[in-house]
Design brief:
By secondary structure, the protein is α+β, with helices and mostly antiparallel strands. The protein is built from two helices and eight strands, in the order αβββββαβββ.
Length: 139
């Protein structure tokens, strides 16, 4: 009987921990990093974000430029099954994208792309990530 109870408890713990592993997530109100073609979720809120492209034209740290450059992020936001095009930029006037995107319940804001470009890492899309924050909108 004791062995059966132990096996049952181990099975329950295994099932519960595997459910949490399926949710590669972020916390509402906290900054998080996301890479190109990566999907992150907040499972309790039923929100997911996927980034499809990061364009970073900032002046390389080891270069001399006449313009600081800009960042444009393209992706997808899903909230309770509703899909939104997510397009963010640090310079809305030049890109046509906003610094933040809002639904009726949430706001997603572009904080910063990483790494900062230099001539040795230009064009390496696999290394590009952005820092975002998702916040609940006040009503």
């Amino acid at each position: 009987m004791t062995r059966l109870l132990i096996v049952f408890l181990l099975l329950c713990c295994s099932i519960l921990s595997s459910c949490n592993e399926d949710c590669r997530g972020f916390k509402i109100g906290s900054e998080f990093e996301i890479a190109v073609n990566e999907a992150l979720e907040n499972c309790p809120e039923n929100i997911s974000i996927t980034i499809s492209e990061i364009q970073d034209s900032r002046c390389p740290s080891d270069g001399n430029c006449i313009w600081a450059g800009m960042i444009m992020v393209d992706g997808e936001l899903r909230v309770d099954g509703t899909v939104y095009d997510l397009q963010l930029s640090n310079i809305p006037q030049a890109s046509g994208f906003q610094e933040e995107f809002s639904t009726s319940e949430y706001t997603i804001k572009l904080i910063d792309p990483i790494p900062f470009p230099n001539f040795s890492n230009l064009g390496k899309a696999a290394d590009k990530r952005v820092i975002l924050i998702v916040s609940k909108r006040s009503t």
